[in-house]
Structures are given as structure tokens and as C-alpha cells.
Design a protein that fits this description.
Elements (H helix, E strand, L loop, with lengths): L2 H4 L16 H6 L6 E5 L11 E3 H17 L7 E5 L4 H12 L3 E4 L6 H11 L3 E5 L3 H11 L2 E6 L11 H5 L16 E6 L9 E5 H10 L1 H4 L10 E4 L9 H9 L3 E4 L5 H11 L3 E5 L1 H13 L10 E5 L5 H11 L4 E8 L2 E8 L4 H7 L5 E5 L4 E5 L14 E6 L6 E2 L3 H7 L5 E9 L5 E6 L4 E3 L2 E3 L1 H8 L5 E11 L3 E10 L2
Parallel strand pairs: 1-10, 3-4, 3-5, 5-6, 9-10, 9-11, 11-12, 12-13
Antiparallel strand pairs: 1-2, 7-8, 8-18, 13-14, 14-15, 15-20, 16-17, 17-19, 19-20, 21-22, 23-24
């Protein structure tokens, strides 16, 4: 055998393949008792799953894979999930990866008619749902004819349907004999669908592995040892591309702490009790809410925190100063910007560029530079690069091993997205100072008013400076004179 004969091979050998199903198996070989997942109240079906070792997590995922195979679900089939965060939902995803099955996790907050359209698109073999969503799941199952496979008994229990423990009971804990390649699609993640029915983004094992590894550096800030890395989040990760952010803790030799859904008080308690070192915090207003919980209760300690990862909107200098006061000066705030199609992100280190951030935020949304695994340029309308020093707004385009394979059953949209040999992400960027990039907005969200382009992100950022504004959403409404009127929907603080 020589290198010529190996060109074009598919690396499916068990000893060096890339598979998200091997996430826990790799660790158990050396550290079977290492805790890899801890769950907060309400984020587990079985109490024994509150803290899972590498061996226990791997055994559970193997049993789940064998249970799927016993149901006649073949490799390459699609199984849809209607689930919020839970240990069992995460284990189910890894089990599907082991079985060579493609998981399609859907945001349960979507309307029935939207999910029905996604079922028509994906033609799933079966549906898995949380008990608290079982009414919705039964409606969808009846309307589509897709079998409801089992429930995850969180938020209730349907006595007529097997739960996770019952579904997996009696199945072997050994690794299933399934051929898997890193380029196989293990997830269909759905876009936000802000302008149409969401598209299904095809995510391979390799995509997710590279995406997860690209976040390890953020989690290791201030850490002496890899095993001290503890990533925590109460944000949705089961149906969101943020799951790639979470896996990096396990890959690095640490653990992840999973909350059911966002709750500022529970987030603060988890940071204190579980010694979370890296918080996937979401939007700045969520981080502000967690700060407030520590301010209200001095018995809680945020001393373990070393990095706070946020996105979607700029953080005001006032909030940044609050995080330094509450979390301590060793805790670093990092803004990231990515998308479902390529989560390997730009990242802006607020403390590294403190003067720039203090002077420009939040009116300018600096998002920094792309990670080393992400090649990114700014293209104009003619697909020519906008070079540094040129302040024109252009589109962010990407190349990366963490990039999607394409849109499921959407060949025209896929071809359009990859025109010119780059992925066109739809985000409007321009060059800022010191080689850093500024996110102007999504092109679809830019409001054209009176001949001017107004970015919704920038207006929202300024509105959030007002002490009585808790949340806002800015849109353009049709206007006879201006074309579009800049219009804000505001939720006031109580």
C-alpha cells in the first residue's frame, strides 16, 4: 500500500475514523470514571444521569444506538427530535451518530405548520419528543404519519409511550458495528427561517468535530489544566448549532454543565456549585441578568469563571465593566459571530481591544477576526474582495472544514450559496480599526429608508442603552414616503 493507492479513500476504519459517536468512547479508554456531563434540575429524565462518567455516557449512547437498530431504522435514515435540553436528548444524538442515523432536531417553539413543512422536506423515519411536548408531537405524528418512537420523560410522562430508559432497556452496551465516515451527515440543523420556511443545513461528523475544536481556546482561558475546563450553558443546544460549542469541553478533557432552558438564577447557582469556567452566555442582556443574580446574592461565587462567550449583539462598555466588577478581572468577555452553516466563528476579545471597544460600542458591533480554521473575506456585489482600508459594506464569505455540506434537498440554494468557490453567508461586514471586522447586519435585515441603509442591530444596540429597555426588536415597516420606516418593538423593564 502506498500514498497513491490511498488517494480518494474513505477513512472508515474503526481506529482512525471521524465520528461524533466516538465522543465518549475515546475518553473512556483512559479515564472511564471522568465526569463528562452534569445536568441541572429539570435537564434529566433519570436521576442517575445527573452526573455521567465517560463510560456511563458511552454505554447509554450504545444502548440507544442498538435500540434504534432493533426498531429497523437503517443507517442514512432521518430521525426528528422535538426536544429541549436534557442529558437524554444529548445522549440520543450521540447514539444516532453511532448508528449512522441522521438526527434532525427541531426548535419546539416553531408552529405546527412550519414543522409539518420540515417533516415533508426531511421525510423522517420516526419522531422523538419530550413529554412536555407530547401533545404537539402527537398532532404532528397524526398529521404526517411519522411514528412517534418514544418520549424523554422531562416535564411530565405519557403512560402510553416508552420513555428513554424503557426504550433502551435490555439493549447491549457494546459498540454497534456500523460503517461511518467523517463526511457522513449526522445532523440536519435548521436555519432560523426569518424570511421563509427554514432550510436544513447538512452537518457532517467532521464539520462538528472541527467546530468544537475551534472553541477549545476560548474555554482554556486562565486554565492551568485541561481537566479543569468546565463549559456551562442554559441556552438551547439540542436543536441549535451551539451544540458544537458545548462538545469542545468534552473533547478537551473537561466536562459540560447543561441547563434545561435559560434561567438567570439557575445559571448563577450552577456557576457557583459546578465551578463553571466558561459560560456560553448568549446575548448581552442574558449575561446582564446573570450578573444581577450574583449582585443580589453575595453567597453565590463566580470565582471559577474565566471566560464569557456571547453573541448576536454588541456588549455595552457599561455592561463589560459590570462583568469585570461582578465576575472579577480574570474573566474575559469574547464576542463571537457565526451561523448554522459555519459555526467556526469570528471572535472579538473585548479586553484585548479595550480602548477600541470603549470608544465604539455598542454603536459599532466589532466582531474581531476569524478563527484560524476559518478563511474569511469580505466580497462586494461583484464577488471581488473588499480590502482592508476600504470602508464599503460587503458580504462575509467563508471556507472552512467546519462548513456545512449544503442545504438538504435544495440544490439551487446550495449552488447559489457556494458561488465563486466561497460560502456566501448573508452577513454584512465592513473593515474596522486594527484589522478587526464590524458586523453591520444580516443583508436581509438592513432597512432601506429614505435612500439610506439602516442596520437593525445598531438601532437595537442604542435602544438597549436606555435603562428602561429590557429587550427590543427593530424592523422596517412599509411607509409611503420613506419606503420603510425604522420601527422598534420594545419590552420595558418591570
Amino acid at each position: 500500500m502506498n500514498v497513491t493507492e490511498l488517494r480518494g479513500r474513505r477513512a472508515t476504519d474503526r481506529w482512525n475514523r471521524v465520528s461524533m459517536g466516538d465522543l465518549f468512547e475515546r475518553i473512556r479508554s483512559a479515564a472511564p470514571d471522568r465526569i463528562v456531563i452534569s445536568a441541572w434540575d429539570g435537564a434529566f429524565e433519570s436521576p442517575e444521569h445527573r452526573h455521567l462518567s465517560a463510560a456511563a455516557a458511552d454505554d447509554a449512547a450504545n444502548r440507544y444506538a442498538h435500540a434504534l437498530i432493533a426498531q429497523g431504522i437503517a443507517p442514512g435514515s432521518v430521525v426528528m427530535m422535538l426536544c429541549e435540553n436534557s442529558v437524554e436528548a444529548l445522549i440520543a444524538k450521540i447514539g444516532m451518530a453511532k448508528a449512522g442515523i441522521t438526527v434532525a432536531p427541531v426548535n419546539p417553539n416553531l408552529g405546527d405548520e412550519v414543522i409539518e413543512a420540515l417533516i415533508d422536506l426531511c421525510e423522517p423515519h420516526a419522531l422523538v419528543a419530550d413529554a412536555e411536548l407530547i401533545g404537539k408531537a402527537r398532532r404532528l405524528s397524526t398529521a404526517s404519519g411519522v411514528r412517534l418512537l418514544h418520549q424523554i420523560a422531562v416535564g411530565g410522562r405519557d403512560p402510553a409511550l416508552a420513555d428513554f430508559a424503557q426504550f433502551t432497556a435490555g439493549h447491549p452496551a457494546g459498540e454497534p458495528d456500523v460503517v461511518i465516515h467523517g463526511d457522513d451527515i449526522w445532523q440536519l440543523l435548521f436555519t432560523s427561517g426569518s424570511t421563509a420556511i427554514p432550510k436544513a443545513v447538512m452537518v457532517s461528523h467532521t464539520n462538528t468535530m472541527f467546530a468544537a475544536m475551534s472553541f477549545t481556546g476560548l474555554g482554556m482561558v486562565g486554565m492551568d489544566f485541561e481537566s479543569s475546563f468546565c463549559m456551562g450553558s442554559f441556552l438551547p443546544v439540542i436543536y441549535h448549532v451551539g451544540d458544537g460549542i458545548m462538545y469542545n469541553a468534552v473533547i478537551a478533557g473537561g466536562r459540560l454543565v447543561l441547563g434545561r432552558r435559560f434561567n438567570a438564577r439557575q445559571s448563577a447557582e450552577a456557576i457557583d456549585r459546578e465551578r463553571i469556567s466558561c459560560l456560553w452566555g448568549g446575548a448581552p442582556h442574558a449575561i446582564d441578568a446573570v450578573c444581577a443574580e450574583f449582585e443580589k446574592d453575595p453567597s453565590l461565587s463566580p470565582a471559577s469563571l474565566r471566560s464569557i462567550v456571547f453573541g448576536w449583539a454588541p456588549m455595552s462598555p457599561a455592561l463589560h465593566e459590570k462583568t469585570r466588577r461582578v465576575f472579577g478581572p480574570r474573566a474575559r468577555c469574547i464576542e463571537i459571530i457565526g451561523q448554522t452553516e459555519v459555526v467556526c466563528c469570528h471572535r472579538f476579545w473585548l479586553d484585548q481591544h479595550a480602548e477600541l471597544h470603549q470608544r465604539t460600542a455598542p454603536r459599532e458591533n466589532y466582531v474581531g477576526q476569524p478563527h484560524g480554521l476559518l478563511s474569511s473575506k469580505i466580497f462586494d456585489a461583484q464577488d471581488s474582495p473588499v480590502e482592508q482600508g476600504d470602508d464599503r459594506v460587503g458580504e462575509g464569505v467563508y471556507r472552512s472544514p467546519a462548513l456545512m455540506a449544503g442545504y438538504y434537498r435544495k440544490p439551487d440554494e446550495s449552488a447559489q450559496a457556494f458561488q465563486s468557490g466561497w460560502f456566501h453567508g448573508g452577513d454584512a461586514f465592513r473593515w474596522g480599526e486594527a484589522g478587526q471586522r464590524i458586523l453591520a447586519d444580516r443583508f436581509k435585515d438592513i432597512i432601506k429608508t429614505g435612500g439610506e441603509s439602516v442596520t437593525t442591530i445598531r438601532v437595537e444596540a442604542v435602544l438597549h442603552l436606555h435603562p428602561e429597555v429590557m429587550k427590543s426588536a427593530v424592523v422596517g415597516l412599509p411607509h409611503a414616503r420613506w419606503g420603510e420606516a425604522v420601527t422598534a418593538f420594545v419590552i420595558a423593564r418591570p
